[in-house]
Amino acid sequence: MNRTATLADPPPSLSPMPVASGGPIGWVVLGALAGGLLAAVLLAAAPFVPPTEAGITGAVLCGLALGWAMLGMLSARFTAQPQQWAFAPAAVMGVSGVLLVAFDASVLEPLSWVWPPVMLVLAVWAIVRARRDLHHPIRRWLLSPVLALLALASLGGGLQTVREAATRADSMPGQLVDIGSHRLHLSCTGSGSPTVVVEPGAGMVSAQLNLITPTVADGARVCGYDRAGRGWSDPAPTNQDAAQIATDLHALLERGGVPGPYVLAGHSFGGLYVLTFADRYPDDVAGMVLIDSTAPASPLDEGAAERGDERSSGLMDRVAILVSTSARLGLTRLIDQPTPSDVRSTIEEYSLGGASARQAAEMSDFAEKPLIVLTAGIGHDADKSAAQDALATLSTNSVHRVVDRVDHPGMILDQDGASATSRAILDVVSSVQTSQRLVG
């Protein structure tokens, strides 16, 4: 009886090995991925990492590489399910990250072409290997989705690189003007004096003025331009608050061969910039149109506000760069911001909004120069009306018009709003030319 039972049992050497589905492998995967994410955040904030797109992107890649390397090492050391494939993404991300941190912008463009296809192939291969080597539920609900997300990011990055190359290949209207530290895009049409200069709102580019500039060009010379880091313009090495934007615009007009006097037209945040320009260069400004302008804010404690801006500027720069890298995956096209430079400059623009509002408040007297204040009828409440009325008091030759059935962006993007804006600009031009007072 005992002998029969013994013979029925297979020899130990032939016994099937159990499949390890439990144990610490789940915690190893979770800990490695979480550790890589934490390392990416810490390295991006590290002071020794240059605060540039290439530097921050490289730091993030190095942190993620550390997470994949931890997965490969810890799974081999502490579990029966070694994930040797994880060393491949660790190597690719690590090498890319080190190159970006060490060589900065010089390798960013080449890597934007090489990295997406390499990582796409690698992510698909890793999904296949993980399916073979990892027998734990965490593969289905965490690891596979992470690898799938990496594949999608690689695909999006490749498409974005191709889109940017195609955009750059498009013919650029106007010219790039070197103002010393960077180049700004300037495009002028029409003829006559005074010249109209249009400032679009936050995050916008001169191309979005296409419902306004052709109409204005029928009766005056009109110039649009892209602020630093926006559209065709180069990024700037300095923070772009209203004072710096006004300084750069003045240099652009001088070096671009656009003599004054100017009629300035500013939409939204652009209103802060034209107010600051008019305050700093009053002899160059003949008239102004404030298009649903952001209201200036007089500082109650200017010194404290400036100290707060200084403390936050370094962190905000890094946050802006980190967020802007999402543009390399094509994600920010959903919010109409096509490139990393566009995203970064827009974030910085809003972060410096308080400083710009205080600088614009220094414009307190526009004398008898013609001024039209336009207010969008939709979203027009008592507080906004009072702020817009206050802007109209800057000049003794001013009118305040409310544009019914038009919202804030519609003042330049909708046909009705653009028509009202173009008419106001030409009214100010006519007032300058004829020395006649404005009429409502």
Q: What is the topological layout?
A:
Elements (H helix, E strand, L loop, with lengths): L1 H7 L16 H21 L7 H26 L8 H17 L1 H29 L4 H32 L5 E4 L4 E7 L5 E5 L13 H5 L4 E5 L15 H14 L6 E6 L1 H12 L4 E7 L10 H23 L15 H12 L1 H8 L10 E6 L5 H11 L5 E6 L6 H4 L1 H20 L6
Parallel strand pairs: 3-4, 3-5, 5-6, 6-7, 7-8
Antiparallel strand pairs: 1-2, 2-4
Helix pairs in contact: 2-3, 3-4, 4-5, 5-6, 8-9, 9-12, 10-11
What structural class is derived from the secondary structure elements?
alpha/beta
Strand content: 5-15%
**Helical element count?**
15
Strand and helix order: HHHHHHEEEHEHEHEHHHEHEHH
Kindly state the percentage of residues in helix: 40-55%
Q: Determine the mean pLDDT.
A: 86
Which strand order do you get reading across the main beta sheet?
1-2-4-3-5-6-7-8
Shape: elongated
In whole angstroms, the N-to-C terminal distance is: 113 Å
Q: From the alpha carbons, calculate the radius of gyration and give it in angstroms.
A: 29 Å
| Poorly predicted runs | 1-22, 300-312
Number of strands: 8
What profile does the largest beta sheet have?
8 strands, mixed
